[in-house]
Amino acid sequence: CVLCGRTDDCPEKYGEKKTYVEYNLTVHYYCLLMSSGIWQRGEEDEGVDGFLITDIRKEVKRAAKLTCNICKKKGASIGCVAPKCKRSYHFPCGLQRECIFQFMEDFRSYCWDHRPVQEFVDKEPGGASQCTICLDLVEHLPMYTVLKSPCCKNAWFHRECLQYQALSAGIFFFRCTVCNNKDKFQKEMLRMGIHIPERDASWELEENAYQDLLHCYQHCDVKRCLCKKGRDYNEPDSKWEIKRCQYCGSRGTHLACSSMKSWEQNWECMECRSIFAKSGKYSKRKRRALAASEKTNGTPCLLEEPPPKSPRQSSGSPRSFLLQSPKIMCQNLSPCSHLEQPASNRVTVSPSPVMSNRNWSLRHKYLRQHRKEVCNILKELKVQVQTKTTRLNINAENIWSSALKGFRQRIFSPTNTIEVNFSNCKNRSKTNTSATSKYHFFQVLMLHLQNSSLFEGSYGKNLSFDFQAVKENLYFEAGKMIAVSLVHGGPPPGFFSKTLFKCLVYGPENVKPALEDVADVDVAQTITAIKYANSLSSLQSTLQDCCEFLTAAGCLRPVRALCDRNMLVNDILIYHVIKRITLPLESFRQGLKTLGVLEKMQMHPDVFSSIFCYKPERLSAETVFGLFTIHSSSDVNKGDGADFWMSYLQDVESGDSVVTLEDILLFVTGSSYIPAIGFDPEPTIKFLHIRYPIGNRLLNCLELPRTKMYQQFKNKMELTIRNTLRVERE
User: Fold this and answer.
1) Is 593 found in the same domain as 460?
2) Domain PHD-type, which positions (predicted)?
3) Same domain for 426 and 527?
4) I need a surface site. Which of 160, 449, 588, 651 has the fewest CB within 10 A?
5) Per the domain annotation, does 384 fall within a domain?
């Protein structure tokens, strides 16, 4: 090395050793960084990592005049930054003499007398504890070789261990090994001379680092294997497909060897079976019932809309043995259960109309305020979107399949501007811009998702368990589509249940589901029968009738008192609403992380619930009027024009018009709804000396004619909007 004069090649201590034959130059990276008389004046790809060759040679000449205070040789390029301290040394010599080099800001260096030290409280316990990196003992002493965590009281480390950990983890993953604190921990370690490289972790950079995790166990372990081709033979979609143990995953069987008719059936190995048998939770016969009960029927179309007014049956729920006894059908069903009667038949105590209207108005006000905040947050996320475009070719007759294909294409990036082209729409109007197609695409896509088999329930929907969708990773794609839709101008979802929203924001372990979250009518009636049992004998009789269901749910427990029913009901709800959909929920959460949407939801849960859990506000004359900013020329009376415009909107809202408020919005912006992120640019109105109104969708600008009479203004509006939209629809 031209700076320290050593031949050692030890990247952990001295940084990468680089040789440049064309310049006849070899240098350690850390020697270069810490040298006192050189600065990085070039770009990253110039010279040596931004240090120009001419500057390096000047620094070598400068250092040749300085003697190292440690080894007494020439070439000491590093000096202590403490005032009045004139010590100079080589980088390797400084390490040996326990100097501190700060790899941040101005890359300062401190000699052994002036180096920074950690503050120790007098009452701190002495002795020794385990270094949480190497697990060897580390003494609690104020030494150079020992560092204390700034965020954890009893966390001590060896300096060498921390340096190796920092080099491996990089700036994104280096944090306290005890409390996981990152900012405070990194700041202190940089001050104490730990070098944290600005790169990804080493395990993330290694190719195929997780390849072993992708290998599935493929071996038949039953006592008598029936396969003639051997225990390792595996043929998918046949009776010789290997099924792994649902609990440990480290044992397997051919479907035929365990008399299983379908891959969807669950199977437990002998070891896991014996563990459950010893725990006394359920018998061998009940476990067989569990396997039979968890069959799932694959649906050919995942987004087929359910029949109207028919409750959706969750695909993962065991229905074959629910409520088979007439006892459960008629016994102890309380008339107050909202799940047995339609909304019109429920008996509720209503507050006074004045109080009801006041509460509704207050909630309406808060929802509007929260939706404005969401709009601003989404605009912050939209900063990531680049001008580079990605085109989605969508088949209007099969929105879901073509959308899925588009989102999964290799060139698709959520940070690109999205253009939508409906490939089977012929003779499209010239006014039907790409923005119009995009708005329409996201609107139809959200409607498809809402009515798909990925969700269950009537209004406030929860995730369902669709085995085929899990297999095809559709829950991830659904979450990704919703996130992309919100940032790129799609409508608010508005169909999530509060339970689903809380699971996404707070984590499923912190959520308590309610009876209304159960979409499957059979399961709901079973829970109701248990919840409203009025005696211990009737409760035990109910449990006996649905014993196999409780076994399948893992909720079978001894009931010794009537009060035990509440705990049992809670267990069933947690299983059916949360535990049953653990895989879909986690996959859906990962999809929502796209563009940082989930992170913002977790930071502002109350705000985002306004667009996820409540239907979008119905358009009103007041809403549409407030959406537009009115501009007018100097010779046009702004007041008269605004009055005509407001009067027309009120006529449209009251039904005294051939067009709707959605038609007006579509005419101007290309969208029949207000996007969650709002319009860009914001809609404006201009009153001009023109004959008929003009909707400029590129600028979201509505140009209105100046008229003396309101009826004349209205007639022109009706004629233009109706004819324009009719042509587009045709």
Assistant:
1) yes
2) 1-115
3) no
4) 160
5) yes
What tokens does 672 get? 């029949």
Strands (E) located in 305-412: 389-394
Q: What is the CB neighbour count within 10 angstroms for residue 135?
A: 9
Pairing label, strands 100-101, 25-28: unpaired
Q: How many CA atoms lie within 13 A of 631 on its CB side?
A: 8
Residue 678 counted as domain residue: yes
Where a domain ends, among 179, 204, 229? 204
Judge if 401 and 417 occupy the same domain.
yes
SS3 361: helix
Whole-angstrom distance, CA of residue 29 vs CA of residue 40: 12
Question: How far, in whole angstroms, is CA 434 from its chain's centroid?
Answer: 28
Residue 199 DSSP code = S
Alpha carbon dihedral 84, 90, 95, 99, in 10-degree steps, equals 0
Mean pLDDT per 10-residue segment, the chain (730 residues) = 91 89 90 91 85 92 93 94 93 94 92 90 69 88 90 88 92 90 92 91 76 78 89 89 88 88 78 71 42 40 38 40 37 36 37 49 78 92 91 89 91 91 59 73 93 88 91 94 94 93 93 90 88 87 84 81 87 90 93 94 92 90 90 60 89 91 92 91 90 91 90 92 87
Structural domain including 184 reads 128-204
Give dist(CA 516, CA 339) in Å, integer. Answer: 7
State the Cα–Cα distance between residues 75 and 454, nearest whole angstrom: 69
Task: Specify whether the CB–CB gap between 61 and 75 falls below 8 A.
Answer: no
Distance from C-alpha of 174 to C-alpha of 197, rounded to nearest angstrom = 10
pLDDT digits (tens, 9 = 90+) for 103-161: 998 899 999 999 999 887 655 556 788 898 998 888 888 889 999 999 987 789 999 99
